[in-house]
């Protein structure tokens, strides 16, 4: 009784090829993510090194509806080094907004901004 080894080697070659594709595919994806992380780090580092820190105060809480709940974004007012009053509401909800609100009216917060 003869064993057909051609089928086994055919499957093995396809399997080895697939594993190689997956291995190099994940390597390329990993290197792209690493490069993106380095670029984001450098961008943040550049922003922070060229910025000024000021004390701001939460003057209002803006409610924002999402599909599942309501979040509250703080509206912050601060004075720049050139005595200009600036009031803003952060547009990111990941760290700042929350339910219940993470900040309250009258809270003092640090603000990092670039002059000019």
UniProtKB/TrEMBL annotation:
Domain of life: Bacteria
Keyword annotations from UniProtKB, A to Z: Membrane, Transmembrane, Transmembrane helix
Transmembrane regions listed in the UniProt entry: 21-41
Protein name: DUF3592 domain-containing protein
Organism field: Saccharophagus degradans
């Amino acid at each position: 009784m003869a064993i057909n080894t051609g089928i086994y080697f055919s499957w093995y070659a396809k399997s080895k090829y697939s594993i190689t594709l997956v291995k190099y595919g994940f390597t390329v994806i990993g290197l792209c993510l690493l490069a993106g992380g380095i670029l984001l780090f450098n961008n943040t580092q550049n922003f922070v090194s060229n910025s000024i820190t000021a004390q701001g105060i939460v003057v209002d809480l803006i409610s924002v509806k999402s599909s599942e709940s309501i979040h509250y974004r703080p509206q912050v007012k601060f004075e720049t080094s050139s005595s200009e009053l600036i009031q803003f509401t952060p547009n990111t909800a990941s760290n700042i907004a929350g339910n219940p609100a993470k900040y309250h009216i009258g809270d003092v917060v640090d603000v990092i901004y670039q002059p000019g």
